[in-house]
Write a structure and sequence with these properties.
heterotetramer; A: 226 residues; alpha/beta; Glutaconate Coenzyme A-transferase; nine-stranded mixed sheet; three-stranded antiparallel sheet; 6 helices; 12 strands; globular; B: 219 residues; three-stranded mixed sheet; 5 helices; 13 strands
Chain lengths: 226, 219, 226, 219
């Protein structure tokens, strides 16, 4: 019997290692695999490259991982926000590297990795600093630049429902980067609000089929409204 | 005729209202963070305009009362929103496929500068800004069928933001089709900026004085 | 009020013109927009380029369009099947052009068009006849070839449910190429088994958001089992 | 010891059964049209193997009785199938993202020829075949983590199908990891074909006589 559901955070994060690239789902406060990130801090791994839309906000989650000194580099579209003080301090001190990627290019680079596409031409960023050093080509009357697939060793994902095959649904805007990142890592690890029996998810409504998922850990924190 | 002292520039709400007036029913529209987001407040619900947000929300409705907020439903500005009947959710790659694939009729962004060739600079205020936040601006500017900009006509210290060529790092080249400022509305045409509307009491002389690019006036 | 639902086939196919490229959804007998294809024959347009997985089977649908002499070229992955006699006769007689594309490359080329990606590197077809004349590049240790976006003037799509905004669901393997093609045409036209009120589709379960759809025509032909 | 006259080559069902034996629980597997499809019949349902079909079906179950067929549920071979609990539907681009992205543990295809360097030819029988049907074979061969081939050891007129280099147009280069024929099972290794199993009564001499490539035998 296939059973991707694991019982402990240690099992969920088994194989975490220094220097790995971690794809981190979530957008704003929604769809963040925060409990998995806390557990990642616990493992003690360091020198991480983190791919996430934001460079962390407040104290917990990614900001906590950075504050603990575990992040060598962050690849994101939006490093600065109202409460991104930890990132900004580290960045000013030269203690963290930053690669800024347009949000859609980031999503598409991750999807490309998941879909086995090595690189693609996109109009985003043409004529800007983002195009520096990149191949430029006119395609069908449009100038485009070449962007490469962006893959992770781990993807940390938050889902709404999961079954033992790893099939996932998400809740509303909690979908965001999660299904895309789930496709694009060697090991995809999910924290799910709900665990349902196999067959409990409508096959038409599964957003991430289990083929993309390696491990699921149950992290219930209450249904809305809170 | 009228002296510039009589000018009544539009305030931010009036600017948003002015943009909203030009959005017809049936358009798919992405509104940037900040002032652009307020445009939605001036589109009546019975004029069906479908608002899109980068984080995979299509068909955004009015802001909810605080008690009715769904913690899982935010827009790209991280504000709580609602979903209209007919709305839908997609993931980030599909959301940007809508953007990059030219499926949005319109995107409205703020900007630091817009040039008469349609270039826009709205993400970094200096080449030395080492950690600027680009978000989805480059994808939106390059991808939407039309890019409109809503911004003050000048900076707080009075420097023009409508310029001959952008000095700040670009967000996209030749993308802007129209600019709404507190002083007027400007189409970006092959000749450059063409004035298509002016705030009450604003005249050509005032606009020219506050613009660092040639202005064309409709016959 | 937005209303993409049209009442006649003439309205559904308005703007059809000679020489246009038509993306045709469906795989096997499932998810074929057969009634729209019949209506396309009625319009009399000719010199069409058709993109479809198969080169038509039996007598109706695409085979009928070909038999009526309206198709100049077909782009597909699987031209021959047990009952593709009409295609084979035309092809032998030199009366139809054929471009064979690997099925996954075809799906990805269409998706690229819908997603605003101009071209992409794929490992599919490397070292085969499919690679002839195409740019070859090693990316991340893998040899890949460059494939270009494939766009349509019209996409003809079959859906299970639709609302007046053009939101769509599909039924089971009727999904196939339909959602991908819906993204990739100037005008996307849908025949839907069911029409539902706006709000009648769960926003989490819509597969094709209405942004990709231009016109919907109601073609009920009975719920299964038949 | 045994003369080739005593050989009892596997029939098609035995070949499918032999492949099925090697597929462990938990693998995601795509079975090509024809003989490969029958492999699924020999994987017991309680050994959970998740079968994928190019047309966007994941978790295919047993063939349904004719009366219970759902007209909307077919596999890539256009046969009616069922869906297991836990199965799901995706569109064609997502289905081939699974294939091209290396998410399938295994693909089993038929072939005209397999070469000792792992090349496979299974879609066109001649350079002059002007309308060959490639379907998803090239994507599957290039994309799956493992490609196994199931085919007769020789053509109907006795020509070897395990060859030094393919003569027919290629489907993919260096992709095949293992070949199951009616005479034996062959791993494709850096040295070429290595025999890892033989049908009852088949011996090395018989295999060599019917193979147009060097064969290595396990010590």
């Amino acid at each position: 019997m296939i059973n991707k559901i694991v019982q402990t955070m240690a099992d969920a994060l088994a194989g975490a290692r220094d220097g790995m690239t971690v794809l981190l789902g979530g957008f704003g406060a929604v769809g963040q695999p925060s409990v998995l990130v806390e557990a990642l801090i616990e493992t003690g791994v360091r020198d991480l490259v983190v791919v996430a839309n934001n460079a962390g906000g407040g104290k917990g989650g990614l900001a906590g991982l950075m504050e603990a000194g575990r992040v060598r580099k962050i690849i994101c579209s939006f490093p600065r926000s109202a409460n991104s003080t930890i990132f900004e301090e580290l960045y000013r001190a030269g203690r963290i590297e930053l690669e800024i990627v347009p949000q859609g290019t980031m999503a598409e680079r991750i999807r490309a990795a998941g879909a086995g596409v090595g690189a693609f031409f996109t109009p985003t960023g043409v004529g800007t600093k983002m195009a520096e050093g990149k191949e430029v080509r006119d395609i069908n009357g449009r100038t485009m630049i070449l962007e490469h697939a962006l893959r992770g060793d781990f993807a940390l994902v938050e889902a709404w429902q999961a079954d033992r095959w790893g099939n996932l649904t998400y809740r509303r805007s909690g979908r965001n980067f999660n299904p895309v990142m789930a496709m694009a890592a060697d090991t995809t690890i999910v924290q799910s609000q709900h665990i349902v029996d196999l067959g409990g998810l409508d096959p038409e409504h599964i957003v991430t089929p289990g083929i993309f998922v390696d491990r699921v850990v149950h992290v219930p924190y209450g249904d809305p409204p809170f | 005729m009228s002296a510039t002292t009589e000018a009544k520039p539009w305030d931010r709400l009036k600017m948003a209202e002015r943009v909203a007036r030009d959005i017809p029913e049936g358009w798919y529209v992405n509104l940037g963070i900040g002032m652009p987001t307020t445009v939605a407040d001036y589109v009546p619900l019975d004029r069906e305009v479908i608002f899109h947000s980068e984080n995979g929300v299509l068909g955004i409705g009015p802001r909810p009362p605080e008690a009715e907020r769904d913690p899982w439903l935010i827009n790209a500005g991280k504000q709580h929103v609602t979903l209209r009947p007919g709305g839908s959710f997609v993931h980030h790659a599909d959301s940007f496929a809508m953007i990059r694939g030219g499926h949005l009729d319109l995107c409205v962004l703020g900007a630091f500068e817009v040039a008469e060739n349609g270039d826009i600079a709205n993400w970094a205020t200096s080449e030395n800004d080492t950690a600027p936040a680009v978000g989805g601006a480059m994808d939106l500017a390059a991808g939407a069928k039309r890019l409109w900009v809503i911004m003050d006509h000048t900076t707080k210290d009075g420097r023009p933001k409508l310029v001959h060529r952008c000095g700040y790092p670009l967000t996209a080249v030749g993308a802007v089709k129209r600019v709404y400022t507190n002083l007027g509305v400007f189409d970006v045409t092959e000749r450059g900026f063409t004035v298509i509307d002016m705030a009450p009491g604003v005249d050509a002389a005032m606009l020219k004085a506050r613009t660092a690019a040639e202005l064309h006036f409709q016959a």
